[in-house]
Amino acid sequence: MRNIYTFYADAARIALQSIFAHKLRAFLTLIGIIIGVASVVVVGASISGLNTYVVDRVSKVLGANHFMMARMAFVGRMSDEEFERRMRRNKRIEWEEYEWVRDHCKACAEVGAEMGNSTDLNQDGAEFPSAVVFGVTANMIEIEDKTIAEGRFITPDEVQRSALVIVLGDDIKEKFFPNVDPIGRTLKVRGLPMRVVGVEEKRGSFFGDSIDRHVYIPITTHIQIFGRGANGLQIHGKSANRENMAATIEEARLAMRDKRKLKGNDEDDFGVVNVEEVNNQVDQFTASIASVVIPITFITLVVGGIVVMNIMLVSVTERTFEVGLRKAVGATRKQILMQFLIESALLCALGGVFGLLLAAGICWLITMAAQITMTITLGYILLALIVSSAVGMIAGIYPAFKAARLDPIIALARK
After folding, report:
1. How far apart are CA 342 and CA 339, in angstroms?
2. Could you point out which of 24, 98, 122, 336 has its C-alpha 20 to 30 Å from the C-alpha of 279?
């Protein structure tokens, strides 16, 4: 065992001496490996960062432990035939059904309702096209984890008496009340004067839709202005914690089925989605991107491996006398083979380390410039180091075999 350890230690020492004896050549050899490893890690970090960013946006927009029931709620793609079938089968959700679920879902921390319509806002010569007016129950602030920057949110009493009050998104506030306190002022919706009671914190865009162009009014007021609509309202629920999410959704779903008197084998005539399903869709999307993009970046590692192979062939030619001398004093073919394989692997492993350092610098710059966190995970670090070392081993196989097959007499004569 000690002899084996001594052999590998000596082989690694000789390999490092050979690498550092030709620093410039070694560096130029490693450029392909460095760029390849940096490319793989940066692309992987970008995908991980994108995943983290989108999931974080989903949580901020939809709230944590949040689920929704609606006539046509679903996540992902749906065929036209299936969509038409559900449109014929599913019924719109009524107010009485919301109240039933609210009263019978004991596991739900909160149950609220929401409706949405798009409309143009006009006042004092200012226009805001296609603003989204949401009618909500008072507890939607807890369900969707909303943050109010100024004033307050809608109260239960205002929902009960269909009050003409409104909470503005940041874009709406800047359009109609720039540089002034909007609280207590009036904004007309469909000609009705609404008293501003709050302004939501700026939230930015989500999948191309600006959240800051939304406004919120009591759902009872919304029904009076816009009607019940073809799809009815949406029921929104919140689980007390992530662990009870599935059980909470199932209890709410069974309550809705009970209200609609659906039998055991009847399909649901409503849709249910939750934040976890959206997050899973994001994970699948980013995984699909990674499965396509990351293998492409490995091409640079292959190119780097070819360069390493060429340099190792040159190294074998330069060290022919050394190989002959080692064989003359008893070195076996296997030992010569392992000597050059270790040197090739160490060379590429060093390239992997420098590639990681380059990738870390690039990720830091992108994070500072774009304000999107680039996440270098342990998995990508191990992948980069293992793959770079494997490329070195593979690239060194032919030069190592060539060195191992040298005749010691002929090799010594080439000094």
Report:
1. 5
2. 98
DSSP sequence for 84-145: HHHHHH--PBPHHHHHHHHHH-TTEEEEEEEEEEEEEEEETTEEEEEEEEEEE-TTHHHHTT
CA end-to-end span of the chain: 35
CB of 270 closer than 8 Å to CB of 94 = no
What whole-number distance in Å separates Cα of residue 183 and Cα of residue 14?
77
Note whether 156 and 142 are within 8 A (CB): no
Which residue do the tokens 């690239």 mark?
Answer: 395
The encoded tokens of residue 82 equal: 């299936």
Q: 199 - beta bridge partners?
A: 150, 168
Question: Within 13 Å of residue 203, how many CA atoms lie on the same side as its CB?
Answer: 31
Confirm whether pTM is higher than 0.70.
Answer: no
3-state secondary structure of 352: helix
Q: What is the pLDDT of residues 125-149, one digit of tens each?
A: 888 998 999 999 999 998 888 889 9
pLDDT in tens, 271-321: 888 766 666 666 676 777 777 777 777 777 777 777 777 777 776 666 666
Closest Cα to residue 111, out of 223, 280, 235?
Answer: 235
Residue 214, both tokens: 């939304």
191-218: pLDDT as tens digits: 899 999 999 998 876 655 778 899 999 9
